[in-house]
């Protein structure tokens, strides 16, 4: 399912997103009143998802990380992003 991650070389740690450096989108919506761009939304679920893929054997990552992927998609949708 997410086999495109399988060829990536992994760092040992995934850095937390620094929201202070993220550009803010001028258009806002009720779900995203601050206008956060997709790259800056949901840093916790994004980091957990990425760490799972980076630290799991590529042949098992699709199955072992699926719940973290689903959590990140749900978080992104909560901001109104159509994923």
Supply the key terms.
single chain, mainly alpha, elongated
Number of helices: 3
Largest sheet: none
- Cα Rg: 14 Å
How much strand?
under 5%
Average predicted local confidence, pLDDT: 80
The SSE string, one letter per element, is HHH
What characteristic shape results from the CA principal axes?
elongated
Structural class, by secondary structure, is mainly alpha
Distance between the termini: 15 Å
Keywords: Chaperone, Copper, Disulfide bond, Metal-binding, Mitochondrion
Organism: Sistotremastrum suecicum HHB10207 ss-3
Main location: mitochondrion
Subcellular location: Mitochondrion intermembrane space
Structural description of this entry:
- This protein is mainly alpha-helical and 83 residues long.
- It has a domain at 42-83.
- The protein is built from 3 helices and no strands.
- It has helices spanning 43-55, 58-64, 66-78.
- The longest helix is centred in the middle third of the chain and has 13 residues, at 43-55.
- It is elongated, with a radius of gyration of 14 Å.
- The two termini are 15 Å apart.
- Mean pLDDT is 80; it is low at 4-17.
């Amino acid at each position: 399912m997410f086999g495109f991650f399988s060829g990536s070389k992994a760092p040992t740690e995934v850095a937390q997103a620094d929201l202070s450096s993220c550009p803010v989108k001028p258009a806002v919506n009720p779900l995203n009143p601050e206008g956060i761009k997709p790259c800056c939304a949901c840093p916790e679920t994004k980091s957990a998802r990425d760490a799972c893929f980076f630290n799991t054997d590529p042949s098992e990552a699709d199955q072992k990380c699926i719940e973290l992927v689903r959590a990140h998609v749900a978080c992104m949708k909560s901001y109104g992003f159509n994923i």
